[in-house]
């Protein structure tokens, strides 16, 4: 969060000597607050003041980048409606180093197949977490190398054994994996290893007090590329830890918790595990390590993540132009809806399921749903008639029938009068489109 000029001024020497190029300390503070100039221009600023200014101007939760474009943290609010959440929870699927070569290959294939298209967006699983469970640094390094060769996705190398990390990391350091975990017992070796290879590292302790103390000790090693693991593995304690870390970082600016937090699921039954992971996506994991890797299990989690990490002030929208579903012809029906992605793609999916090639004309309602748009005066008969005329769909069909959402049946008469088209009131929900077309 940016500091005000007065907050900066309080930390300056107040000599008003002008050596920084501005006549007074206050003028210098104002220049810094507006992003002009550097604190280095004042030769008299103390180390304490520099530390305080650096610390106060740092974001509440540091951004940590690793792997193939994964970004953790850099969040500024507790609640999505306060502003927005910026970096969707990174989802990683675990592969234990005790699996056979064939099993690792099979798991990788399953992970590579986790690609989804939803409301016009494409999304995939973010990475793979290789877990050292063998007790053998050589085996861990071998499986890490096999996984790295089999996927371009982000990597997490996880072992509490510094020797295992030392064996596996050099071969994949160019992929900038996240490594862990630095614990009370090994943190000097593991943090120094991360520092040497310039990769981020998980700091793990049992409980928040121990974690804060360990982070402070680890920072003294001159490295701050950290991701936090508060240790708990039960859903209730993990949720409590995630919430405390976020609150303390955002509300209290408690610096030891100014880093992203990673969570690990404890459930083994896939649906229970996805339910558990959903809680962590909502509050407030920056990354989650999962066991489930079937499409049917991962898709709902990704849908939840997508919904939470859209900007509430900028709804996802589709282009408000004439769209086609299937091989349209002059008899194809025409559906009217809004350009809110969720609404549009719900309609499109059901029209597709009806197996009748059709036109869909989404009206530009600034990405709001049908009822919201109608209530806000953005789904008016005059506007729809105008867009209908400009779309040119009248030249493509040999009929003059329009299907409008059942929720706005009230506009049918006026729309018919203004447009000259016969207005048919469709179902209220898009889920009724298939049965509606059968009854037509
Ligand atoms: Fe103030 Fe430092 Fe500038 Fe002198 S050099 S006026 S002490 S800010």
From TrEMBL:
Entry EC number(s): 1.2.99.2
Residues holding [4Fe-4S] cluster: 17, 20, 25, 42
MF annotations from Gene Ontology: 4 iron, 4 sulfur cluster binding; iron ion binding; methyltransferase activity; oxidoreductase activity
4Fe-4S domain: residues covered: 1-59
InterPro entries assigned: 4Fe-4S_dom, Ac-CoA_synth_d_su_TIM-brl, ACDS_complex_subunit, AcylCoA_decarb/synth_gsu, Dihydropteroate_synth-like_sf
Annotated NCBIfam families: PRK04165.1 (NF003195)
Binding site for 5-methoxybenzimidazolylcob(I)amide: 337, 343, 367-370, 430
Top EC class of this enzyme: oxidoreductase
Keyword 4Fe-4S: yes
Record GO biological process: acetyl-CoA catabolic process
Keyword terms: 4Fe-4S, Cobalt, Iron, Iron-sulfur, Metal-binding, Oxidoreductase
Entry protein name: Carbon monoxide dehydrogenase/acetyl-CoA synthase gamma subunit
């Amino acid at each position: 969060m940016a500091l005000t000029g007065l907050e900066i001024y309080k930390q300056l020497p107040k000599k008003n000597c002008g050596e920084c190029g501005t006549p007074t300390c206050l003028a210098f503070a104002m220049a810094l607050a507006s992003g002009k100039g550097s604190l280095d221009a004042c030769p008299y600023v103390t180390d304490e003041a520099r530390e305080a200014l650096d610390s106060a101007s740092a974001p509440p939760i540091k951004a940590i980048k690793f792997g193939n474009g994964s970004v953790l943290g850099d969040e500024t609010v507790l609640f999505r409606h306060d502003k927005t959440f910026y970096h969707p929870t990174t989802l990683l699927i675990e592969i234990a180093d005790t699996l056979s070569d064939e099993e690792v290959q099979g798991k990788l294939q399953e992970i590579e197949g986790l690609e989804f298209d939803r409301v016009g967006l494409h999304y995939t699983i973010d990475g793979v977490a290789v877990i050292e469970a063998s007790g053998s640094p050589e085996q861990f390094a071998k499986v890490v190398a096999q996984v790295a060769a089999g996927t371009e996705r982000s990597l997490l190398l996880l072992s509490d054994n510094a020797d295992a990390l030392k064996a596996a990391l050099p071969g994949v350091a160019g992929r900038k994996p996240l490594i862990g975990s630095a614990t009370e017992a090994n943190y000097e070796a593991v943090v120094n290893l991360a520092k040497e290879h310039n990769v981020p590292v998980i700091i793990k302790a049992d409980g928040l007090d121990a974690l804060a103390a360990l982070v402070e000790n680890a920072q003294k090693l001159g490295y701050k590329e950290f991701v936090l693991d508060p240790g708990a593995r039960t859903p209730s304690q993990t949720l409590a830890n995630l919430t405390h870390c976020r609150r303390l970082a955002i509300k209290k600016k408690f610096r030891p918790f100014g880093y992203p937090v990673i969570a690990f699921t404890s459930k083994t039954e896939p649906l229970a595990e996805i339910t558990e992971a959903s809680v962590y996506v909502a509050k407030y994991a920056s990354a989650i390590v999962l066991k489930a890797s079937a499409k049917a299990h991962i898709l709902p989690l990704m849908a939840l993540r997508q919904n939470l990490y859209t900007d509430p002030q900028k709804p996802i929208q589709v282009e408000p132009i004439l769209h086609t579903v299937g091989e349209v012809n002059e008899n194809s029906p025409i559906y009217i809806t809004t350009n809110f992605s969720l609404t549009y793609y719900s309609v499109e999916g059901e029209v597709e399921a009806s197996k009748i090639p059709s036109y869909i004309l989404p009206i530009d309602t600034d990405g709001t749903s049908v009822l919201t748009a109608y209530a806000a005066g953005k789904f008016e008969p005059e506007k729809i008639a105008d867009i209908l005329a400009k779309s040119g769909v009248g030249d493509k069909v040999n009929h003059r029938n329009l299907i409008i959402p059942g929720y706005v049946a009230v506009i049918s008469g006026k729309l018919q009068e203004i447009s000259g088209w016969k207005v048919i009131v469709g179902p209220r929900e898009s889920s009724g489109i298939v049965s509606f077309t059968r009854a037509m």
